[in-house]
Amino acid sequence: MASPVAVTLSQHLLAEEQKHAVSPELSRILIQIGYAAKVLAREFTRAALVGKLGLIGDKNATGDYQKKLDVYANDAVIEAFSDNGLVAGMVSEELEKEKEIASGSSSDYLMCIDPLDGSSNTDINGALGTIFGIRRRAKRGGTIAEEVLRPGSEQVAAGYVMYSNSTLLVYTAGHGAHGFTLDRELGEFILSHENIRCPARGHYYSGNLGKFYEWPAEIRKYIEYLTDHDASTRRPYSLRYSGALVGDLHRSLIEGGIYFYPPDTSHPTGKLRLMYECAPLAMVVEQAGGSASTGERRILDVRPESIHQQIPFVIGSAADVALYEHFLSGQRSVAAKS
Ligand code: AHM
Ligand code: MG
Question: How far apart are CA 316 and CA 235, in angstroms?
Answer without folding.
Answer: 17
